[in-house]
Design brief:
This is Bacteriophage protein. By secondary structure, the chain is α+β, with helices and mostly antiparallel strands. Helix content is 17%, strand content 36%. The longest helix has 14 residues, at 109-122.
C-alpha cells in the first residue's frame, strides 16, 4: 500500500487518542484492564474487565501486591560507621490480596450455591492455579499462584438471606515465582548433511529475543546421535554438551544456575557392563565414551552456563552439531516484573 500524506485535518485527528481510535476502528472497550483467574479445575473466572462477573465472581475495587516486584535490601550497619553499607537485594515471594464478590441479587439461592462451590473448587489449598492480566499495551501476562493462607473473612450466617445471594471474601494468593510470564519464544535449527560431510560439523547463529524486563536464561534441546555445542549466552564461550546415542533421543538443557542443567529423555539405567568398563583403568581409557553412556546424561559431562540474557535484548546464540540431521532447539522465557 503506497504511503499517504495527511492533510491538516487528518493530522489533528490522529493527535487525539479517542479520535484516532475511531479513525482506525480500534474498539474502545478493549482498553480496560482485564483480570482472570484460571482455576485448578480448568474454569476461567472473569474477575475484572469487559466480561466482569460473567461466571458469577468479580473482583473488588482494590488489589494489593500485584504490580511491583517484591524485594528486600540487605544493609549492614555498625557503631563506628556513618550511615550504612548496601550489600544486595533479594527478590522475595509475591503476596497478592484482593476482595472477591460471589453471586449477587440477580442470582437465585441455588445458582449462588453452585457459583460458590465451583469457585472454591477452583482454588484448592494444595494445587497451583493461574492469575492473568490483559491490557492492550502488554497483552496477556500470567503468574502461577496458590492460596497463601486460609480465608479468614467472617462469614454471614446465611448468604442467601432476604434473596441477597452474595458474599464478599478477602483472599490472599502466594506466588513463589514472583514474575509474570508470557509464552516463551522457540527457534529450531537442523544441521545440514552437506556441511557436516565437508567440515565434520554444522553451525548456525540463532537470533532469539528476551522481550521481558527481567534477565533470562535460555533453555535448549538437542537430539542424538552425536554431540552439540551451544554458546554461553552473550559471551563467546562455546559449551560442549554430552554425547548422545540414537537410543537417548533428545536431552533438555537448562542454563539457569538454580535448575538441573541436563535431563535426558530416556536416561539409561546403569548395569554391570558399564560398571565393569569404568572399573578397569585400561578399558576406561580406550572406551571412555562408551562407559559414560551407562549413566544419566547429566553425569556424563560437567556443563555450566554463566551468562544472562539482558532485558529487552535480542541474543545471537551460536549452536553446533556434528551429525547430519541433528537438531538444536532454543527456548527463551519471557518474564515481567509487572502485569502491565
Amino acid at each position: 500500500m503506497p504511503p499517504k500524506l495527511l492533510n491538516k485535518a487528518e493530522q489533528a485527528m490522529f493527535q487525539n487518542w479517542d479520535s484516532a481510535c475511531a479513525a482506525l476502528h480500534i474498539p474502545q472497550q478493549g482498553q480496560a484492564t482485564r483480570w482472570v483467574l484460571l482455576g485448578a479445575t480448568g474454569i476461567l473466572w472473569e474477575l475484572e474487565g469487559r466480561h466482569r462477573g460473567r461466571q458469577g465472581a468479580r473482583m473488588g475495587q482494590l488489589i494489593d501486591g500485584a504490580h511491583h516486584l517484591p524485594f528486600e535490601h540487605l544493609i549492614t550497619e555498625g557503631a563506628y560507621q556513618v550511615g550504612a553499607t548496601y550489600e544486595r537485594s533479594n527478590i522475595n515471594k509475591r503476596i497478592i490480596s484482593f476482595p472477591v464478590i460471589l453471586g449477587g441479587p440477580k442470582y437465585s439461592a441455588h445458582a449462588y450455591r453452585m457459583i460458590e462451590t465451583n469457585f472454591w473448587d477452583s482454588l484448592p489449598h494444595d494445587k497451583p492455579f493461574w492469575l492473568g492480566c490483559h491490557t492492550m499495551f502488554g497483552g496477556w501476562r500470567w503468574i502461577e499462584v496458590r492460596l497463601a493462607e486460609v480465608v479468614k473473612t467472617p462469614m454471614k450466617i446465611d448468604s442467601v438471606a432476604f434473596q441477597n445471594n452474595t458474599m464478599q471474601w478477602e483472599i490472599k494468593l502466594l506466588a513463589c515465582k514472583p514474575w509474570y510470564a508470557k509464552r516463551m519464544l522457540i527457534e529450531r535449527w537442523t544441521a545440514h548433511p552437506e556441511t557436516v560431510a565437508a567440515r565434520g560439523f554444522d553451525e548456525e547463529t540463532i537470533s532469539i529475543a528476551n522481550r521481558g524486563d527481567m534477565p533470562a536464561r535460555f533453555l535448549a534441546m538437542y537430539t542424538g546421535p552425536g554431540r552439540a555445542w551451544i554458546q554461553d549466552g552473550i559471551t563467546s564461550r562455546m559449551v560442549e554438551l554430552p554425547l548422545l546415542t540414537s537410543k537417548d533421543g533428545y536431552a533438555l538443557v537448562d542454563s539457569n544456575e538454580g535448575a538441573r542443567t541436563l535431563t535426558g529423555a530416556t536416561d539409561p539405567v546403569d548395569n554391570i557392563f558399564y560398571d565393569w568398563i569404568r572399573g578397569s583403568r585400561i578399558l576406561d581409557f580406550f572406551l571412555h565414551d562408551i562407559a559414560a553412556l551407562g549413566v544419566p546424561v547429566w553425569r556424563r559431562k560437567y556443563v555450566r552456563f554463566t551468562s544472562d540474557i539482558p532485558p529487552r535484548t535480542v541474543a545471537n546464540i551460536k549452536v553446533r552439531h556434528d551429525t547430519a540431521g541433528g537438531q538444536v532447539i532454543l527456548m527463551m522465557p519471557q518474564r515481567f516484573t509487572r502485569p502491565v
